[in-house]
Amino acid sequence: MNNNDENRKDKQLEEYRADNRGKKMTTNQGLHVSEDEHSLKAGDRGPTLMEDFHFREKMTHFDHERIPERVVHARGFGAHGYFQPYESMAPFTKAKFLQDPSVKTPVFVRFSTVAGSKGSGDTVRDVRGFATKFYTEEGNYDLVGNNIPVFFIQDAIKFPDLVHALKPEPHNEMPQAASAHDTFWDFIANNRESAHMVMWAMSDRAIPRSYRMMEGFGVHTFRFVNEQGKAHFVKFHWKPKLGVHSLVWDEAQKIAGKDPDFHRRDLWESIEMGNYPEYELGIQMIEEEEEFKFDFDILDPTKLWPEEMVPVKMIGKMVLDRNQDNVFSETEQVAFHPGNVVPGIDFTNDPLLQGRLFSYTDTQLIRLGGPNFHELPINRPVCPFHNNQNDGYHRMTINKGQAAYHKNSLQNNDPQPASEEEGGYVHYQEKVEGRKIRQRSESFKDHFSQAKLFWNSMTDPEKQHIIKAFCFEVGKVKSKSVQQQVVETISQVDVKLARQVAIGVGAKPPENMDDSVEKLTSPALSQEKTIKIPETRKVAVLAADGFSYPGLNQVMEDLKKKGVIAEIISHNLGMIKSSEGQELEVTHTFLTSDSVLFDAIYVAGGKESIDLLKKERGALHFIQEAYSHFKSIGAVNEGCDLLTSAGIQIDGPGVVTSREQANLNSHHKKFIDAISQHRHWSRQI
């Protein structure tokens, strides 16, 4: 436990004591309680009496402490922070929180996985939710998105079908938090609008390194509307300051066993240490007059707007600087809704968005016990709210007055609607006409062009990861028919991809198809083009008694200066002593930690230390596993011998070594540069 953790715990304990110091225990009705360890009985060995109201109240509260988990996005974790615009966006929107660069708008963000239950692991292959609640002076605005810019389906009426296919199969309730099973892939093969999304889901985007290194997207097309009533189509992006980085599949699976709370722990500890996650808010905008100029429908939620066609303009930043005080009260009870908008932000006819505008309220009613979930502290707006909606389950406001309807004369018809000039929300006056039909636009029927664009934009290592992901997922499918259908679907994206997947899962490869057409690319889709910096990366330093203090102390200082977090791993907890007599505290042991929980490995010098580590199988495995996951490995002096014992090529890609004490500064710089690269994919070759 670091000093920040201890200080926070001390502060929380003091706050608790301050709230309860000198207080007497009461029931929830304020009645003082005389006994809290024994229920009321008829004699000391008799039955408990039904009149024991204190027992019943206490037990009833306990019985109902858990609320239904979300059907999707059940596994989540949140943090508080603020949003601050870079400049006034008045030319495009009248939303007040996007006007003044000096104003910080409070936010609460909930990150989540989609498929798994509340108790599932953080690092499973899945879409991640990225939902932001802005507590603006005009009311709450919710930007409810994902870490992938498109979705599986085009119309909300198919959402129950998608989730039923994705969730554990009903006859045996397996598998948990995974899509590697028959019903999901049967859905993909028979609903080809999912082709683009499934390419993203099989990519590294579905196994992010952390929430801090994950993009967010609003997915849908919305509208900005300015004071003059002019509208622009808009898409929202969150770009992380640390770049977009991912785990590798084997690593993700092992982390799920070693630390199923890996992502939430990373977020919590980063904020506690003052390494506040930061994201830029970007927007893509299209003039209304240009709605039909593209070869895709801009309202189709299975399509993105390539950034090379429609650039992303950065308009502000979000900083997450405060952890939750209570996960249940905040993360579990927060209620997001894409319909929570403010003047200047409006909807479009995206059929998936239109359905979400109904389903989110409907979901909260059952989860949070009725229509008053907006009064929970985490959901309550910072501005006042007034209306005639009284009563209902869990009403917290004590409404006064005789009339609870509109219009009335008894209370001067208060509260009254606000005009647009007074801040009243007025829907954009889009012209709508047409026959009532159950049909999808012809412009929504191209399901493969952007799936091809995504595949063609990947680097060779990224393509190999996608191939392996398909082989793993489809290889778990029991139905040979479904496997074959999936291969045929993939062949519409790329024939070579389909052939390799077919070979991997034992299906029939596709017949020769024309694969000579021009292959368009969008470099912005590849994670390899992302920001690469060392800040907040975690390095495991392997050392034991007899380590060389000057070298280890210097590398720890050099890493700290660059914002890299170094933790010492050894045989036992406690202190280890250098050959020069200094002591350092061990953070983890080879039993309590693992290489998959770190971004890089460094082996300290010192003959006695290395002789001890050579005898430790855990140390050798630590190094070998990190190398197999393409991570940076550094070693100095005798530490190089431990790499040799582990079978690591000393001058291999991402392996930084030195046996010259005079060159330590240069050595450490090279090691930090290697950490910045995230992975060294040339080891795959």
Automatic annotation (TrEMBL):
Cited InterPro entries: Catalase, Catalase_AS, Catalase_clade2, Catalase_clade2_helical, Catalase_core, Catalase_haem_BS, Catalase_immune_responsive, Catalase_large_C
Positions with a binding annotation for heme: R70, R110, F159, R356, Y360, R367
Molecular function as annotated in GO: catalase activity; heme binding; metal ion binding
EC number(s) recorded for this UniProt protein: 1.11.1.6
Cofactor (UniProt): heme
GO terms of biological process kind: hydrogen peroxide catabolic process; response to oxidative stress
Gene Ontology CC entries for this record: cytosol
3'-histidyl-3-tyrosine (His-Tyr) crosslink, residue number(s): H337-Y360
SUPFAM superfamilies for this protein: Class I glutamine amidotransferase-like, Heme-dependent catalase-like
Catalytic reaction equation(s): 2 H2O2 = O2 + 2 H2O
Domain annotation Catalase core: ranges: 26-414
Keyword terms of this UniProt record: Heme, Hydrogen peroxide, Iron, Metal-binding, Oxidoreductase, Peroxidase
Basic and acidic residues compositional bias, start-end: 1-22, 33-44
Pfam families: Catalase, Catalase-rel, Catalase_C
Renumbered residue ranges of the record's region Disordered: 1-45
Active site residues per record: H73, N146
Family: Belongs to the catalase family. HPII subfamily.
UniProt function note: Decomposes hydrogen peroxide into water and oxygen; serves to protect cells from the toxic effects of hydrogen peroxide.
Protein's name in the database: Catalase
Source species: Metabacillus arenae
